[in-house]
Amino acid sequence: MARLYEAHSLALSAAYGDLENFARSQDLALTGTPGSVGERENARGFRFYAHQSYDANGRKTERYLAGPVGDPGADAKARELRAKIAALNEAIRSLRLLGREGFSLADAKTFATVASLHNRGLFASGAMLVGAHAYGALLNQLGARAARYATRDVDIARGAGLALAEPLDRSFLEILRESGIPFVAVPQLDRKKPSSSFKERGRSFFQVDLLTPADTDAIELKVVPELQAHATALPFLAYLLGKSQDSVLLARVGCCAIRVPTPERFALHKLIVSRLRRNTAKSRNDLSQACVLVAVLAEHHPLALEDAAAALPASARRHLDAASALALPQLDSHPRAVEALRAILSAS
Q1: Of 177, 249, 320, 324, which one has the greatest count of Cβ atoms within 10 A?
Q2: Residue 85 CB contacts under 8 Å (≥ 6 apart), including other chains
Q3: Structural contact between residues 312 and 320, judged by C-beta atoms closer than 8 angstroms
Q4: How many CA atoms lie within 13 A of 169 on its CB side?
C-alpha cells in the first residue's frame, strides 16, 4: 500500500514558517484580494482615497478609505494600507509556490469568512476552527503533503465562553456578513428552534456551522450569549477542544492567524466520530484524515498519540476500538503508526 503522506522539504517548511510569522503579525486581514489604493473625486470636488479590490465572490468592490487627499491623517492611512498591500502581495508569491507544492490552501469564501472572525478577535478569545479546514491547516503545520480534501463547510467551535476583551457589538451572523458574503440563518426542520448554521443566500451550498460541547451523549442546541447565537452541541467535542494551538489558514489571496485543536486530539477525535456517522462519505473522510495524522504523528512526534489517548473519556473507547479495526489496514505502509495505535488499544 502507498504511503499516506509525504514530508515537505526543509526549504518549503521554511517558507511556510515565514508566512506563519507574517499572518500572526497582522492585526486585520483583508477579506478579498489585496487590491490597490487610488484617489477619487466626487461631484462636489472632494478628493479622497478609496480601496479597490475583488471580494470572495469575484465582484469588484470599492470602499471609501480616508479624505481629503492632502490631509496628514488621510495621507497616513493611504500610505499604511499601500504598505500593507505591498507586503501582502509579496506573501501571495510564497502562497502561490506552496500551493503548487501541495500545501493546503483554503478557497476564497472560506478565507473571507475565517478572516472576518479573526478580525473580530474570536480566535484570540478561544474560538477554534475545526473540521476539514483545520485538518488542512494542521497538515501544513506538520509539514506533510497528503491527498487533497474537499468541503463546502466551515466549522467553528467554542468550548467555554469566549474571553473577549469587550462585548461584541454585533451577532455571529452579522460578523459573518462582514466577509462580504450574504449569509442567512438556515432554518431548522422545527421552525420554532433557533438556527446554528448559516449559509450563503441563494443556491450556494457554502455553509458555516457553530458548534459547542454537549453535556450528554445527545445532540442538542445551546445558546452562545457572547455571540448572540445558538450552537449545535456535540458529544466528545469537549475532548477535541481540550487542547489547542495557534495555527494559520493559508489561501491564494492571503493568510490569517487561527486557533485549532492539537493534531493528536484531532486524529483520535476523527477516529471516534467516524463511527458515530458510519457508512457515509463523511465517515470515510473522517477515517482517512485520521489515518494520515496518525501516520505523521507516530513517525515524527513519538508518544503524542499515546498521551492524547490517556485523556479520552471512557465512553469514547468503544468507538475508538471499532474505528481502529478499520484504520489499521490503511496504515500498512506506516509500521510505527500501527505500533502506536495498537499500543493505545492495548492500554484501554
Answers
A1: 249
A2: 34, 35, 36, 37
A3: yes
A4: 1
Q: What pLDDT sits at residue 215? A: 84
**Euclidean distance between CA atoms 298 and 280, whole angstroms:** 27
Helix boundaries (H) for the chain = 10-25, 72-100, 108-119, 132-142, 172-177, 237-241, 263-276, 281-300, 304-310, 317-330, 335-347
Read off the pLDDT of residues 35-50 as tens digits, 9 standing for 90 and up: 999 999 999 999 999 9
Cell, residue 99: 500551493
Distance CA 202, CA 1 (A): 43
Question: Residue 150: pLDDT band by 50, 70, 90 thresholds?
Answer: confident
Assess whether pLDDT exceeds 90 at residue 188.
no
Residue 36's alpha-carbon distances to 50, 88, 179, 180, 226, in angstroms, are: 8, 11, 18, 18, 35
Q: Identify the bridge partners of residue 223 per DSSP, sorted by sequence position.
A: 230
The dihedral sign for the CA sequence 180, 203, 58, 62: negative
State the Cα–Cα distance between residues 80 and 74, nearest whole angstrom: 10
Q: Which one-letter amino acid corresponds to residue 334?
A: H
**Using CA atoms, how far apart are residues 124 and 110, in angstroms rounded to an integer?**
18
Phi, psi for 43 (deg, rounded to 5)? -65, -25
Q: Are strands 207-213 and 229-234 parallel, antiparallel or unpaired?
A: parallel
CA-only gyration radius of the chain, Å: 22
List, for residues 86-141, the tens digit of each pLDDT value: 999 999 999 999 999 999 999 999 999 999 999 999 999 999 999 999 999 999 99
Query: What integer best gives the mean pLDDT of the chain?
Result: 94
Q: What pLDDT score was predicted for residue 218?
A: 75
Q: Which helix (H) or strand (E) holds 261?
A: strand 254-261
